[in-house]
């Protein structure tokens, strides 16, 4: 039995990066021989054998030889194996592409065999933004889309890759590469033509809807839900009638349902769905925070406070518009949340809600005098 450290762990080791995940490849052994050697291993793989042991993943080869196994992996820079003696086996272009920071498919067939690698490739550019996607990668991804293979993927697999991409240093690259390779449909179909839609009139915007979205995502890197809010905030702009462009009146209202639909399509959590919808709903209103009536502030802040998204929403405003009202907003939250109804106004149904809103708006008005 030969056990190799495989893929990203070897890549990170060669680059001097901290190894966060260790995956192993088992060669020259049957599943039963592996089970006999490691009785605590638990088989989880479906398409091909994968075992979990002490939190580590041990996979069995897809091919019969090391050379073919390396070509069956996703990217050349991940097609690397290190044995127990320190000997390195790699894709013919693996070291070249690693040295030159190139993202290239290990083979077109490996993407045909597992079309999810389209999204993994996009995620790797988000994870490794100093690398450059090779034309061969873009062409392979485009081929997979043209063959209709993206439609065959399970929604939760796309969602898992997307969540991983939200937690990378340059999450906007995830959408950028999908757009460059014409791989936005069917999973991100809302953005399909967004590279041809202006984000807004000059001087406020100088790019397309999708590039603006990617820039906002990059600016919010470091917080998963903030990045998802950045992805969703301008979805409504993709529905703006052509004769209205470059303006996008009402795109915030249109985007609320679109954000919810996208979250559900990818089988994301309820927290993601709420974050995306609230980003679409409130980002334009929050950008005019100083102009808002106290009652409008109360409506928005209480909605965000109950969802625990005040900080994320106002971070989005900074990334989107360059204006920072976060301190004022948090101060106002601390003013209105403690306000309570007197006993005589409780238990009056809708009337109680109306009066509480009035009291909170009054408290805001007095605090800002």
Structure notes:
This protein has a domain at 1-100: 2-Layer Sandwich (Beta Polymerase, domain 2). It has 17 helices and nine strands. It is an alpha+beta fold and 369 residues long.
What is the topological layout?
Blueprint: E1 2-6, H1 8-15, E2 23-27, H2 31-37, E3 42-43, E4 50-53, E5 56-59, H3 66-71, E6 80-82, E7 88-90, H4 94-100, E8 102-103, H5 108-113, H6 117-127, E9 132-133, H7 135-146, H8 155-166, H9 172-180, H10 209-219, H11 224-232, H12 251-265, H13 270-286, H14 294-306, H15 310-321, H16 326-336, H17 350-367
Parallel strand pairs: 2-5, 8-9
Antiparallel strand pairs: 1-2, 1-6, 3-4, 4-5, 6-7
Helix pairs in contact: 6-8, 6-9, 9-10, 10-11, 11-13, 11-15, 12-13, 13-15, 14-16, 14-17
H/E topology pattern: EHEHEEEHEEHEHHEHHHHHHHHHHH
The main β sheet shows up as: 7 strands, mixed
Distance between the termini: 77 Å
Backbone CA Rg: 25 Å
Number of helical stretches of at least 4 residues: 17
The largest beta-sheet arranges its strands as 3-4-5-2-1-6-7
Give the rounded overall mean pLDDT. Answer: 94
